[in-house]
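Hi R.,

Here's the input for the FE2/S2 (inorganic) cluster complex you asked about:
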Amino acid sequence: MIALTINGKAQEFDVDPATPILWVIREQAGLTGTKYGCGIAVCGACTVHLNGMPIRSCVTPVQAAAGQEITTIEGLGNAVTGLHPVQLAWIAEQVPQCGYCQSGQIMAAVALLSSNPSPSDADIDTAMSGNVCRCGTYPRIRKGIRTAAATMAATREASSGDLNNG
Ligand code: FES
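And here is the predicted structure with FE2/S2 (inorganic) cluster in place:
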């Protein structure tokens, strides 16, 4: 048995420890927002977070995540809990085309904004260079990240104002 916390929910999986995390997420946990792309850690469609850091779930064995926290696109936010600012920016900027790569793109964008809240275009291009989009939505991905960065900065400013005034 391998214990994982996925999107805040502690679970145990009876699985070969060498199984890529992607298949545990999709087939055992039933979370199909994370996609299988190339299967060799090149395209980024399978990006999830392990303890907040982006990883390629198609090549990372589940034993490497034992006892740790995985976040998938479903765990960022949803219609019930409210969407993450990056998800909202993706809607506002109409980023996806076919959509297949986009959960990986969003997970990579969230990781970028966690480590660099105000990225330049060059920072965005570097951070997102491992996430391939066959539809060529790169200009809109950049726009979505800029929009999310602005929203998140405004929220931080508003909450620091609240703290200062409280
Ligand atoms: Fe189609 Fe990126 S939106 S592959």
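One thing worth noting: The chain has two domains: 2-75, 85-165.

Cheers,
M.
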